[in-house]
Amino acid sequence: xxxxxxxxxxxxxxxxxxxxxxxxxxxxxxxxxxxxxxxxxxxxxxxxxxxxxxxxxxxxxxxxxxxxxxxxxxxxxxxxxxxxxxxxxxxxxxxxxxxxxxxxxxxxxxxxxxxxxxxxxxxxxxxxxxxxxxxxxxxxxxxxxxxxxxxxxxxxxxxxxxxxxxxxxxxxxxxxxxxxxxxxxxxxxxxxxxxxxxxxxxxxxxxxxxxxxxxxxxxxxxxxxxxxxxxxxxxxxxxxxxxxxxxxxxxxxxxxxxxxxxxxxxxxxxxxxxxxxxxxxxxxxxxxxxxxxxxxxxxxxxxxxxxxxxxxxxxxxxxxxxxxxxxxxxxxxxxxxxxxxxxxxxxxxxxxxxxxxxxxxxxxxxxxxxxxxxxxxxxxxxxxxxxxxxxxxxxxxxxxxxxxxxxxxxxxxxxxxxxxxxxxxxxxxxxxxxxxxxxxxxxxxxxxxxxxxxxxxxxxxxxxxxxxxxxxxxxxxxxxxxxxxxxxxxxxxxxxxxxxxxxxxxxxxxxxxxxxxxxxxxxxxxxxxxxxxxxxxxxxxxxxxxxxxxxxxxxxxxxxxxxxxxxxxxxxxxxxxxxxxxxxxxxxxxxxxxxxxxxxxxxxxxxxxxxxxxxxxxxxxxxxxxxxxxxxxxxxxxxxxx
Length: 642
Prior knowledge:
Blueprint: E1 12-14, E2 21-24, H1 30-45, H2 50-59, H3 69-74, H4 78-94, H5 105-112, H6 121-137, H7 142-150, H8 171-188, H9 192-202, H10 211-227, H11 232-255, H12 259-274, H13 280-293, H14 299-325, H15 335-352, H16 363-368, H17 373-388, H18 394-410, H19 416-437, H20 450-466, E3 471-473, E4 492-493, H21 495-505, H22 511-514, H23 517-529, H24 536-542, H25 554-557, H26 559-564, H27 610-624
Antiparallel strand pairs: 1-2, 3-4
Helix pairs in contact: 1-2, 1-4, 2-5, 4-6, 6-8, 7-9, 8-10, 10-11, 10-14, 11-14, 11-15, 12-14, 15-17, 17-18, 18-19, 18-20, 19-20, 19-21, 20-23, 24-27
C-alpha cells in the first residue's frame, strides 16, 4: 500500500485484489495526500476537528465536493481528475488503518456510506482493498464492514447505487462487485462466516416488504451460498423459514376471506401476470404509488393487496428454489442428488413439518422426492421415523403421518408397490395403537386417541386416491384405464390391506365417528361399490351418537355440560380436520414445476347410482325397529364386510 519512489508518473494503476501495485494516480501524489491525512488525524487526536471533518466529507464520496462550475469551465477534465483523487485518499488512508479505532468512528462510518458500487471498476477494487486493510488492523470493525455490505443485498435498481457523472452500472455488475468484496473478505478473515450468518438473518426483509426486495435479497443469499459452503445449510434454513412464515400468513389471510374477496385476489393476480413484461422501473414506481395510496384506501382493499403480494412473493421465491435445485437432480440416482435431497429433508424435518399451516413450501420435497425410488424411500423413511420411532411431540407425529399418506396418495410418480408397502407399514402401527387404546376405551374420543384417528384417516385418504394399486387381481374384462370397468367385478384385494381396515374401523374406538366426514363419506362410497368393505351401518348408527359423552373427564369435570351449552348438535370441534399437505398446488408461476407430480381427483362414471341409496334406506328401516342405547352404541358387534 506504500507509494513508489517516483510519484510523478501520471494516470496508471494496475490493481489486483491479491497484489495491489500502484505507480501513481490522480492530480496529487499519494505522499501529498498521506501528509494531509496524517495532519487531519493528528489534529483530531488533539481535539481540533476542522481538517478531520473535511476528510470525512471527502471520503464520503459526496459529489457536491467535486463540482465547481468555474473550475470546470477553466479545466473540463477537472471532474475526472477529482474522481481519481478520491482513490488516492482511500489508498493513503489505508496506511493509517491502525489509527482508525473508536476515536475515528465518524470517519469510518462516512467511508462505509460511500457509494462505491456505482463508480468505475478501479475504484471498486481500491475500496475493497481498503476494507480489507481496515479489518486487518481493526478486527473489531469486521461486523461493521460486513454489515455495510449486507445492507446492499436489497438494492435492485440502478438508482440505488448510481453516482452522478459516472456511467450507469447495471444490476449484474453491481451484484458481482458486491460479492467479489464479500468473497475476498471471507477468504482473508474466517471469522466473517459466523458474523455473516447473524447479519443475513437480522437484515432479511420483513414479510411485508415488497416482492422485489425479497427476490433480490434471496438472490444475493444464493450467490453467497455458492462460494461459502460453510454457510450453505444456514442460508437455506433462513430462506425456507422465512418462506414458511409468508406461506402461513398467506393461507390464514385467504382462509379468513369470503368468496368475493378471494375472487378479487385472483383477479389482481391475473392482472399482475398480464403486465409482468412491464419495464422494471415502471413496476417499482407503481409499487411505490400503490403503497402511498394505501392510507386512503379501505381495509378491504388493503387485505386483497396484502394477500396478492404475499402470493407473488411465495410464487417467485419458490420458483427460484425449484430452479436452484433442479440441476442437482439431473441424475436422480447419483450421490449428488441424494446429498441435495438430504438437505431438503433437513429443511422439511426442522422447519416445514412443525409448521402445521404450511401450504406450498413442502412441494419442494414433494417434487424432488419423486425423482427416484431411492429418494422416495428416504422421504418415507424420514416420515416413518418421526411418526413412530422418535420421541417427537404428538402433533409432529400426526403431521408426519399426514405427510406420508398425502405423499403416497397424491404422488403421480409413486409406484404401486410402494403404495402397498406404506399402507402395510401404517397398518402395522395402527394395529399396535388399537391394541393399546382399546384397553381403556369406552367410546370415540379425539383428544385421547388422536394418533389412532389420524392414522385411520390417512389410510382412508390413501385408499380414495390409490385404490387401484391396492388390488391384487381383477377379471380379464376389466380395463385398467377405465375406472368404471371395475364396478360390479369380483376384485381380489391385497389380503393384509382389507384385514387392516376391517379390524380398526370396526373397533371400539369407532374412527368413522371422529374422522373428517368428507373423507369418511368418500371412503364409504368407494369401499362399498368396489366390494372392499361395507361401513354404512356404522355410519348410520353414529348419527345417533354424541361424542361429548366420551370426552376425557367430561362428566367428572362438568366439561360436557360446558361444551353442550354452546350447540348440542355441533360436534365438528371434536372431529379431525382434513389436513393433507399435498393438495393441488395453486401458485400461478411456480406450479409449472409440479403440475405433473400429483394425481388429481378422478371421478368414476356410474359410481353414484341409486343402488347405494337403496341399501342405506333398507338399513335405516331395519334400525327403526331397534332401540340403541347411546352409552353402548360403540360396543355393538361390528357388521361383516360385504
